[in-house]
Design a protein that fits this description.
The protein has 194 residues and is an alpha+beta fold. The chain is built from three helices and eleven strands, in the order E-E-H-H-H-E-E-E-E-E-E-E-E-E. Helix 1 packs across helix 3. The longest helix is centred in the first third of the chain and has 17 residues. The radius of gyration is 19 Å and the shape is globular.
Length: 194
């Protein structure tokens, strides 16, 4: 038996055995889907610890497990031997805060200008902080800010590395409470060549 702790709860599992039966096509397809998702999540491991933490409170899974499940259910497209991730269907943050309204991105020299509707919010919602993320799949790299401008400001800037010039990037925005304990679901703000 293996014993370990998840979110303060002790879990016991039986030791895994190596199967002598060749895997079926369904098993191989499932393994390939999982591999595609795990490769996509490699640069996001630390990021999702924060952005998926709210949905894992008092549950028997980790933020990484929650992000993996979300991508497997909603973002994997294609057929066996040709699976890929659809960036427009990726959710990089999950929670109960109100999502960004009218979110958009403008590409400028060396940075991305994120914007959202910041009008009409009252405290404490008006002080939620922007979470901005840019993902260069070709490079396998992300650049993000977990504590951007307040919601009422309506805009913020994310600076990118020069090595990203000429690369396709996917962008996302979400919000995090001022205390940092709650998040919103993310909004896909488009794909751009930087």
């Amino acid at each position: 038996m293996y014993y370990y702790t998840i979110n303060g709860q002790t879990v016991a599992r039986a030791r895994r055995k190596v199967s002598k039966v060749p895997p079926s096509t369904k098993q191989l397809a499932s393994r390939q889907r999982m591999k595609v998702v795990q490769q996509y999540l490699i640069p996001l491991v630390q990021f999702v610890k924060t952005t998926y933490a709210e949905v894992c409170l008092r549950k028997m899974f980790t933020p990484y497990n929650a992000a993996t499940s979300e991508l497997l259910k909603n973002a994997v497209r294609g057929e066996y031997l040709d699976y890929n991730i659809d960036p427009a269907l990726v959710v990089i943050s999950k929670g109960k805060l109100q999502i960004p309204q009218d979110a958009a991105v403008l590409v400028s020299e060396g940075h991305l200008q994120f914007s959202w509707n910041g009008n009409g919010y009252k405290w404490p919602i008006s002080n939620d902080r922007a979470i901005m993320l840019a993902y260069a799949l070709e490079l396998g790299e992300v650049i993000y800010d977990l504590c951007g401008a307040a919601r009422h400001v309506g805009k913020d800037t994310l600076y990118l590395d020069d090595s990203w010039i000429g690369k396709t990037i996917d962008t996302y925005v979400a919000f995090r409470s001022e205390k940092g304990d709650k998040t919103s679901e993310s909004v896909y703000t488009g794909s751009f060549i930087f």
